[in-house]
Each structure stands twice: as C-alpha cells, then as structure tokens.
Amino acid sequence: MSGFLLLLGYRSVEAETEDRQWDVVVIGDSIIGKEREDGTVDGYFEEYSGMTMLNGAFGGNCASVGEHADRYSYNEESLSLKSLTEALCYRDFGVQRADLAASQVKREYFDSVMEQLSGVDLRQTEILLLAFGTNDYMVGKQLDNQEDPLDVTTYGGVLRYAVEMLKETYPDLEIVLVTPPFFHINGRENCFEEDFGGGTLDQYAELEKEIAAEYGVYVIDALNDLGFDETNFEEYTEDSLHLNKAGRQMYARFLAEEIQELTERKSE
User: Fold this and answer.
1) For the segment 49-76, what is each residue's pLDDT rounded down to a tens digit?
2) CA of 220: how far to CAs of 61, 174, 245, in Å?
3) How far is CA 146 from CA 143, 150, 156, 157, 177, in A?
C-alpha cells in the first residue's frame, strides 16, 4: 500500500533546512508538549537516558484529521499526525508556518517548536516517537474504517498512513508508537469506561498495538505499563489529565527504560 503515498507533491529530503542531530524526536500532543520550562518530559528523559530528545509535541492536536483539515489558521489540523508526517517527509513546513502566523489560539511555545522541527533531518535521528491518541479519544474520532485502512479521518487509518510514509522516506529510522497514559476527567468515568463516541481509551491503545504488529514497529504501552491508574492518577496529574512534575518525571523515566530495552533488543 505504501508506494502511492509519495507520488504527488513530494519534495526531496535534500531540501535546505538547518539541521541538528537528535537521538530521539517525539511528535504528539500536550501530554508531552504542554510543559516547556519547569521539569519537562524531554529534560528528564535526557537525564535518565543520556540521549538527546527534541520535544516536537503540540497541545490540542489529534492524530487524525477532521472537518477543518484544509482550513488555514486552524492549527489543530496542520499539527495533526498526518500533516506533521508529510512536513517531516517532504521537509516543508510551509503550511504549518502559515497556519501559526494566522492563528489566534496557538500556545506561546508553538513557533519555537516549529522552528526546531523544521530543522530536523530524520536521516540523522535514531528514534521517532509518535505519541498521540488522547485528543482523538476525547473528541470521539472513529477507531478505524474497515473499507479503507488508510482513512486519515480515523485513528487507525492515520497511524498506518504515517508509518507507511515514514518507513518509505526514512527506512533506517526506528518508528515507535506510544499509547496515551491513563487519566480520569473529574465528573466523568475513567478512560477505561468513558466512551466519547469512538470507543474507550483502551480500544485506541489496543488498535495502536495491532498496527505496530502489522508494520513491525515497536510500541510503548503507556496506558497499561506506565503505572498510572484509578488509585494514584491524582498524584501524577495537575488536572486529572496533564502531568504534574512528578508525573513528567515518572513518564520520562518510563520512556527512557522502554527505549533502553528497545536498543538492547536491536543489539542482540
């Protein structure tokens, strides 16, 4: 299925940008991206792992695309997994820059992170983490389309689309899927019980693991293995969803341990 993905509008990865080498690049949502100053996930990760990490995650975005996918200044769409994958593969962030320039709702860190991402050369990166899913779940994006496995309006479809395009463009890059951590919004059921229209969060995570197996890529199951649950999530979150400092430390250490395990497996 992969061949046709790059036929139209393709720009060579030789496009001129200012490159910096990173061991790990992560794109995702506010679970990783929200905090940029006081104890960041990437800062703790670098401390625990000894590897460099570019935190290219943005708050408010879904992996899948929606009704505003072709609308300028709607930065949640130009920062979707689909759009960011295309930008990283074509090495062209023109759409994102135009959207952010016009956006009235962007967070203060968006512009600087975009500049960092636009300078990334994934040929010099060891691991790319795709850490999406929380917002897809909360807005009720559909899990999959059985008639079109590459339907980018669904969570499964956009994961396949991204993995195929990235593997095609960067065959030496280690692509790692990361499931969302457990959370419990106050006044609602927890994420294993609450269905916002597309399914419960564990269904999104299970689909992610199935797609990882389908394409032979590694998956880090933060939902089930990180250690957040109904008994302790308040210790690690500031609003039942976003991580507090202790939560960011725990999450970063978890990522570092999982990536160390992946590295050891590859060296065997």
Assistant:
1) 999 999 999 999 999 998 655 554 455 6
2) 20, 13, 21
3) 10, 9, 10, 9, 21
